[in-house]
Amino acid sequence: MKNYRINLIPGDGIGVDVVREGCRVMNALAEKHGGFKFTFNELPWSCKYYLEHGRMMPEDGLSILADCDSILLGAVGFPGVPDHVSLRDLLLPIRTGFDLYVNMRPIRLLPGLNSPLKDNRINFVVVRENSEGEYCGKGRMDADTAVQESIFTRKGTERIIRYAFEYAKRNNLGNVLSATKSNALNYSMVFWDKIFDEVRAKYADIKSAQMHIDALAGYFIMHPERLEVVVASNLFGDILTDLGSAMLGSIGISPSGNINPEGKYPGMFEPIHGSAPDIAGKGIANPLGTFWAIQMMLEELRENEAAGCLMKAMEDVLADGRIITPDIGGKATTTEMTDAVIAAIMA
Ligand code: NAD
Ligand code: IPM
Ligand code: MN
User: Fold this and answer.
1) How far, in Å, CA of 84 to CA of 95, rounded?
2) Pocket (CB within 6 angstroms of ligand 1)
3) How far apart are CA 26 and CA 189, in angstroms?
4) pLDDT per residue as tens digits for the range 251-281
5) Are 104 and 296 in contact (CB under 8 A)?
6) Which pLDDT band holds residue 6 (cuts at 50, 70, 90)?
7) What is the DSSP string of 178-193?
8) Helix (H) or strand (E) holding 231
9) Does residue 94 have its Cβ closer than 6 Å to ligand 2?
């Protein structure tokens, strides 16, 4: 029997709840399938850990973390530790340290979800650059001035745009849209556009276009049905995917796969949402974003049957409509939602 070793970073706030429930779902899937199991290694790295140890993870954290088949992360960040510290010292170093340069974020309206938009045809992916750009962490600040740098390299820009086109090709998708802002960001986004033009020239069969990020945000709302693959820098992809998940009714729904396509490091899977301090400890977080992230992890591990089983279970529970968490209009708790998904898996 195959044994997948999964490193868990529950993190803070509702991250702890959704990862706990995620493990229950994974064990149910393994039981149902019968051909594999999971061994979990839980790492306590979080804001609580920071307050005890003065750091978010141990010095050799990345080598501890690398020793597994895949990583599941809840969310990191909690009042008491500045957000730029908790993320700078944990989440971002994992993404860059493991060169997880692709951040795949599917946005799809599952049956049973109520979109706040009029047009319900929502099914696209955002391919977010995940290793550089606006999140490179470089800059300086004194009492009067702050300078925040963005680094766009040819290597980094080319590989993410190429990945978006290859993804479209692999999945028979006909159009790739690039998020830009080259009218105002006169170095970084001019460079991004130039490389987008170079790469798209090699994919004559795929329609492609670019749109300034402000106009694109409007386009998400007005014409979601026209979106197929959107490729975006680190910051733009971040913003567009909270927007995308909100178009499904809640930011608690959408998942995120941090991937090194060359397979040099394990992938890290997480919901797109944060630790939600406003509802932490209430037991009402929507765990679907995490379950969907687990579905992406299973595909990465080539357990397609189990991935399909989990997706169908989530769809069945939503379509049934009896067990719905408060963020999407119901009264169910996180655990009740998990119980329902597990029951659907086992059915
Ligand atoms: P957030 O995503 O935590 O919350 C935004 C709003 O959405 C809140 O009202 C919250 O209650 C709601 N929400 C989020 N997830 C939900 C879920 N699963 N079910 C129901 N409601 C949900 O964003 P924020 O408030 O900007 O950030 C809070 C903290 O999380 C900060 O410390 C931030 O830095 C951190 N953060 C971490 C990650 C991560 O670790 N990947 C991502 C985003 C934000
Ligand atoms: C996300 C989060 C992170 C990001 C933050 C918390 C650094 O918002 O995963 O979308 O911007 O990448
Ligand atoms: Mn985000």
Assistant:
1) 15
2) 11, 14, 75-77, 83, 87, 91, 250-252, 270, 273-279, 285-286, 289, 327
3) 41
4) 999 999 999 999 999 999 999 999 999 999 9
5) yes
6) very high
7) EEE-TTT-TTHHHHHH
8) strand 229-232
9) no
CA 119 / ligand 3 centre spacing (Å): 24
Distance CA 47, CA 100 (A): 23
Cβ of 272 closer than 6 Å to ligand 2, yes or no, is yes
- Contact indicator for 50, 56 with CB cutoff of 8 Å: yes
Q: Which domains does the chain have, with CATH numbers?
A: 1-99+261-347 (3.40.718.10), 116-247 (3.40.718.10)
CA pair distance 23, 294, nearest whole angstrom: 9
User: 3-class secondary structure for 33-83?
Assistant: HCCEEEEEEECCCCHHHHHHHCCCCCCCHHHHHHCCCEEEEEECCCCCCCH
Nearest CA to ligand 1 atom 1: 274
Report the SS3 class of residue 177.
Answer: strand
Probe residue for ligand 1, chosen from 275, 286, 335 as the CB with the greatest number of ligand atoms within 8 Å: 275
Tokens of 249: 């009714």
pLDDT of residue 119: 83
DSSP state for residue 41 in the 8-state scheme: E
**Can you tell me the distance from the alpha carbon of 347 to that of 343, in angstroms, rounded to the nearest whole number?**
6
Average pLDDT over residues 201-216: 98
Alpha carbons 49 and 68: distance in angstroms, whole number: 22
Biggest CA pair distance of the chain: 62
pTM of the prediction?
0.98
Task: Return the sign of the alpha-carbon dihedral for residues 123, 127, 130, 135.
Answer: negative
Q: How many residues does the chain have?
A: 347
- Residue bearing the CA closest to ligand 1, atom 39: 75
Per-residue pLDDT tens digits for 310-331? 999 999 999 999 999 999 999 9
